[in-house]
Write a structure and sequence with these properties.
This is Transcription repressor NadR. InterPro entries: 3H_dom_sf (IPR035922), 3H_domain (IPR004173), HTH_11 (IPR013196), NadR (IPR026043), WH-like_DNA-bd_sf (IPR036388), WH_DNA-bd_sf (IPR036390). Keywords: Metal-binding, Nickel. The protein is 39% helix and 25% strand. With 171 residues, the protein is α+β, with helices and mostly antiparallel strands. It folds into 2 domains: 3-57, Orthogonal Bundle (Arc Repressor Mutant, subunit A), CATH 1.10.10.10; 63-156, Histidine-containing Protein, Chain: A, CATH 3.30.1340. The strands form 2 sheets. Strands 3-6-4-5 form a 4-stranded antiparallel beta sheet. The protein has a two-stranded antiparallel sheet with strand order 1-2. Strand 4 and strand 5 (101-109) form a beta hairpin. The longest helix is centred in the last third of the chain and has 14 residues, at 112-125. Residues 164-171 have low confidence and may be disordered.
């Protein structure tokens, strides 16, 4: 079997992101060869997402919502925690900048451990969250395995939600 299809099968079976460095060592090739293989797989229509923790295969059968929320920087941990504890994944944060327009930052957290790492990285880097640009108002793309789980998540974060929620979903 061709290496890129072995990579694809490995990503489909993995429940967690797979680092490019690991793939390069596994197949005894350079990291750049792995990047090329991933690019070819994407060109063939395979949904492979790059995260800071590695590559992950996106089967595309999840429910997604873009939800408007508002809170202070101190509430980031609580908001993300409520989402992942109820079975969701926070894909990104989106804010409106007065000069640049819409700015999106990847978050990619689906476990409490990932939430803690994300919040810790924000604190240790001295970086301000994107939501500070817009006085705490921001959007999150949230992913859940089904509508029931999404409804549970939305109820859990109700105190942060704005009334003009965007509820587009992909299935």
């Amino acid at each position: 079997m061709e290496r890129k299809y072995q990579i694809l099968e490995l990503l489909k079976r993995s429940k967690t992101p797979v680092k490019g460095k690991y793939l390069a060592e596994l197949f005894d090739v350079s990291r750049q060869i792995i990047v090329s293989d991933i690019a070819q797989l994407r060109e063939e229509g395979h949904r492979i997402v790059s995260t800071r923790d590695g590559y992950i295969y996106d089967a595309g059968n999840k429910v997604r919502r873009v939800v408007a929320v508002k809170h202070s920087s101190q509430d980031i941990y609580d908001e993300l925690k409520r989402i992942v504890e109820n079975g969701g994944k926070v894909l990104d944060v989106i804010v409106e900048h007065p000069v640049y327009g819409e700015i999106t930052g990847r978050i990619d957290v689906s476990t409490l451990d990932e939430v803690e790492k994300f919040v810790s990285l924000l604190a240790s880097s001295g970086t301000k969250p994107l939501s500070e640009i817009s006085n705490g108002i921001h959007l999150h793309t949230i992913e859940a395995p089904d509508e029931e789980t999404m409804e549970r998540i939305l109820k859990a974060i109700a105190k942060y939600r704005l009334s003009n929620e965007n509820t587009e979903c992909e299935k």
